Structures are given as C-alpha cells and as structure tokens.
C-alpha cells in the first residue's frame, strides 16, 4: 500500500524536476546597457528579473551581438534600449521582435522634447577626418553619432524619470496583476531621484565654472542639468584616438590653466590623456559613464548619479590648503 501511494509522488517529483530543466530560463526584461538597466531594475524590483545585455567593460560603440545575445533578446518579454543611434548593433534583431516587446527610450514622445542636439559632435567627427584623411575613421564616428541628437540619455535625471514612467506602463501591460508593486516602485524611484537631485545640486554648486576636459563626450545632459562647464573632450567615439590638432589645442588650454581637471574613463584607459596632462598643474580624475561597479537594483540609478557627482566634485574642488 505504501508503495502504491509513493509511486505517484515519485513520478510527480520526477516530472517537476524535468520541467525545471526544460522550462525556458530567461529574464522578463533585457536592458541594452547598464544605466538603462538601472532604471528598469528600479521599476521591476520584486516583480520580474532584469538582465543587462552588454557585459562590464564592453562599449555600445563597437559591440557585436553573439548568438546567445540574440537568443536572450528573442526570449525576453521586454527589451529596453536607447535607440539605433546609440546601440547600432541592435536594430536588426529588435526589428524581428513584436512591436510591443521593445521600448526605445529616445523615441518616447515625452523624451523627444528633452533631447539635446549633437551637431558639435558631428563637427568634431569631420575635423578628425580632415586631420587624418581617413574617411573610415569618420565613418566609425558617424556609425555612433549619425543622427541629429546626443544619445547619452541616461545622463539626464529628467529623461531617466520619463523613461521610468514608460517602463512602468509597459510592465503594467505585461503584468497587470503586479500593479500595486509596480506603482510603489515608480513612486519610490521618483522620490529617491528628487532627493538625490537636490543633494547633487548642492554638492556641485561650488565647482560651477571650473573648466575641465573629458575623455569621451558623454556627459552633456548631466552637465547641462547641473550647470557644469566642460572645456572640451578628447574624442566623440572612444574607440578612435583624437588627432594631433585636437591634442595640441587641449595641451595649450591645460598649460594656460583654463581647465583644472582632465577625466579618463574606466572602460578606456587612454595613455593620451595622461600624456597631454603631464607636466601641468591640472588634476586627473575618472568618470564612469556606465556605472561599472554598481549592481542593478532598486536604487542603482540614484547610486549611479551620486557616484558621478562625487567623481566630478572630487577632481574639480580646490584641494585643502590651497
């Protein structure tokens, strides 16, 4: 009798184990790059998993999809990305997904009015071509900035907030049973973002007007929002080294003390930044535009903004005793 009772239980257990191995294992939300994942993770917290497509250290400027990436994208319930001008490696695969399975932040009606023009970047791209006479270099820059607007949208707290609202609406369509949690997550995100914004404005107020050079022109939205004064950048596309004319200009500015800091990035450790600053009184710092060391969670976007603010402030503020 015991054996008869046990057998169905064993069969049921075996079937559950088999199902656990055969069931598709994938995240409901796949974000293209980490900062986009920060925003998505805030809204999806406790509701559905979020995965980041690009691994730490990879650049959206030159990434190539692997077969496993394509599989993840096709299995996802929702793919969140910036748009074809940022992730040029994604449109083909995104185009094969149902329209309701992807969300391009740059295309959102509430984001479009907030976009900043990218004409200055295009001018620098042409300057680079003329300096070196290599059309393929310009084509590489054009590959990333071939549009009218600057696509580093996650640097804008307001665009991040609008993106969170849009992600919330999408997840609500997919998971209406989780309305209460999704609503609470959005409210938490907006409240924490507003609080962090106030703190960052206070932290950066003393360094307004201080000139600096960044390695990669990725910070325009952040700079505009917080009133920072960039002197210039080394390159538009970090995969392309700046030309001699640009380096001479930057070096002259540094020698004449028109800037107090030069920033490199952890994703790219260009010796050229150190070489140009060598022998000057200019301080060196690092800006992380992708939040490499931050784990996506409920508060990761706010952590990202606070980290970026501290990176700016620590290099731009006057050292004690000067």
Quick synopsis:
By secondary structure, this protein is an alpha/beta fold. It is 48% helix and 11% strand.
List keywords for this structure.
four-stranded parallel sheet, disordered N terminus, 322 residues, 11% strand, 8 strands, alpha/beta, 48% helix
What does the model show?
With 322 residues, the chain is an alpha/beta fold. It has helices spanning 2-22, 34-44, 67-75, 91-94, 119-132, 135-144, 157-174, 179-204, 220-226, 244-255, 271-277, 300-316, and strands at residues 29-31, 50-52, 78-81, 102-104, 211-216, 229-235, 261-264, 283-286. A four-stranded parallel sheet has the order 2-1-3-4, with helices on one face. α9 links the parallel β5 (211-216) and β6. α2 packs across α7 (157-174), α5 runs antiparallel to α6 (135-144) and α7 (157-174) packs antiparallel against α8. The longest helix has 26 residues, at 179-204. The chain is globular, with a radius of gyration of 23 Å. Mean pLDDT is 84; it is low at 1-25 and 121-146.
